[in-house]
């Protein structure tokens, strides 16, 4: 689907970046894309169409019976009146019953379609490259999953049947009116022309405001998600007033845009009612004249007064539904924009089960933003089973090296070899199974302690989980939890200390037993005493494994086989701890700064 995108700058793998502003250029393409989701619900659509058709036929036939009853009374044929009235009552009752089933079926249809749409969107988000996810604030993605999808569901459940019924009602009503009087039918159709012209004029302006409202709603959700997640930081720096001011600014923009959108949308109803009333007056005046001339009967006039309402009512309803449809289309455009993004590369062969874990970076260059390299001609060979530490100032590219090894991002230049083979030859999923990673920002899930540890190996036995927890020295504090390993962590472990959360992450890596181990500030949230306790556990975990350690706390990497000092994406020094201290270079400066108690 063609769309206009205004790219916002983004600088590396950070969570909260401004998403591209996207505008669909073709509503028809969006509608056609949505219609694909109706294919698996063909029987419901066909049944809904049948119910709508029968209900419209019942609704259209009722005025015919009323006209016949009036003409029978006028002609003094009173014996015919009861039978005609029974037919009219039956048509009205059938119409009411079918309306009930129409609502039920529309609700089931909408929920079934939205379920598949949400499923596709969730699978798509999970299949996107990390770079694509970084371009979307998480709150905006959540808004597309919830608000935008709900708007589509609302239109399908409340508006789809109305649109079907409106179209069929206009056709059926027109056919009956033509059988009664062609001139009166043409007069009624004149109001339809006025309605279409009015709708087209208002719709052009309405569409822009509805799209803008959905985008602002996504920004507001993103802001709320970010600030709620960082509420401790906000309070710690007493930034509540500034956060509220920023929220108010976005909320005010959303309010103003929403008022404009709803004002224009709500104006459709009064406009259509005015046109409908004008049509009623025209039909009444000209009908009376035609009856006096003997061209039509009094019963036809009464039927036409109802048909003029029946004819204009669907047009009015469809016009009033335009705002909902426009909102749904705006949401659909945003959802389809995500679905249109390219998937992460998944092809490739499986990593051999006997992989040794030798890693080599060969002249690797990478940039998050074109022409602004984060990694520049980086070359490094890590022998199987060796322990390599990466140190350097913030922004020197240490974490980026890990992201490239995990294939979260693809290289600009060079290659990364695993046992002599380019990692791009392997499927990312297979490559990542080979690697265990413990991040500085610990990620836990709102699940039991056992399931959090066993996240990498769900099939692990309870004894294996306990053994991993003991190895990471997490078993002690788990024993004091209310239900121990069956304790459900609330808010992703918010009730635990930062150190306890990190111990669970280390236990998870222990259970995974990977061939390659990555520790990204793995003990940064652990106090010195606890760090000392888990040193030999970490040593056992790293034994005979290829290890890549990112650390600011230099005391944790003294026994590394080689320490790599990075600056601006390049290696500026390398060697063992004692060797680097003797060189009196960048590493010694970092060491002395840290030894002096200052943050490096």
From TrEMBL:
Residues 47-327 form the ABC transmembrane type-1 domain. PANTHER family: ATP-BINDING CASSETTE SUB-FAMILY B MEMBER 10, MITOCHONDRIAL, ATP-DEPENDENT PERMEASE MDL1, MITOCHONDRIAL. PROSITE patterns: ABC_TM1F, ABC_TRANSPORTER_2. Coiled coil: none annotated. InterPro entries: AAA+_ATPase, ABC1_TM_dom, ABC1_TM_sf, ABC_transporter-like_ATP-bd, P-loop_NTPase, Type_1_exporter. Gene3D superfamilies: ABC transporter type 1, transmembrane domain, P-loop containing nucleotide triphosphate hydrolases. Pfam families: ABC_membrane, ABC_tran. It is an enzyme of class 3 (hydrolase). Residues 359-593 form the ABC transporter domain. It comes from the Bacteria. Its main location: membrane. It is found in: Cell membrane. This is Lipid A export ATP-binding/permease protein MsbA. One of its GO terms (cellular component) is plasma membrane. The chain crosses the membrane at residues 43-64, 84-101, 152-180, 186-203, 278-307. It comes from Mitsuokella jalaludinii. The keyword Hydrolase applies. Its EC number is 3.6.3.-. It is a multi-pass membrane protein. Keywords: ATP-binding, Cell membrane, Hydrolase, Membrane, Nucleotide-binding, Transmembrane, Transmembrane helix, Transport. GO terms for molecular function: ABC-type oligopeptide transporter activity; ATP binding; ATP hydrolysis activity.
